[in-house]
Design goal:
The chain is an alpha+beta fold. It has a single domain, classed as Alpha-Beta Plaits. The chain is 22% helix and 32% strand. It has 2 helices and 6 strands, in the order βαββαβββ. The strands form 2 sheets. Strands 2-3-1-4 form a 4-stranded antiparallel sheet, covered by helices on one side. Strands 5-6 form a two-stranded antiparallel sheet. The longest helix has 15 residues. It is globular.
């Protein structure tokens, strides 16, 4: 199992969500409001705040869906401008389902 973590522009969230829901077997996702900055920084004249709003998407997916989900986020979140965001893939070693006490490598 892998975690796909994406930081995208807030205005792209609906499009990305719709596209991901069309992926057969899509397992669902968590969305978190966050602020951050990368290489490109904004300059504010009075109160210096380099942070820009982003949406953080977290998806835990089985191996066979990882490439399709990654490609979908990359394609749909792309506008061609700096600050479109980033997508990362992490290994998930194990997880637990709180309601049943089940513990497994792939909770699906």
């Amino acid at each position: 199992m892998k975690e796909i973590r994406a930081y995208i522009q807030p205005h792209k969230l609906s499009q990305v969500t719709i596209a991901l829901m069309e992926v057969p077997g899509f397992p669902g996702m968590t969305v978190i409001d966050c602020d951050g900055f990368g290489r490109e920084r904004t300059e504010h004249s009075q109160d210096y705040k380099p942070f820009l709003p982003k949406k953080r998407i977290e998806i835990l997916a089985p191996e066979h869906l990882v490439e399709k989900i990654f490609e979908t986020v990359m394609r749909v979140a792309h506008s061609g401008n700096h600050g479109d965001g980033k997508v990362y893939i992490f290994d998930v070693l194990e997880g637990g389902r709180i309601s049943s006490g089940e513990r497994a490598v792939d909770l699906g």
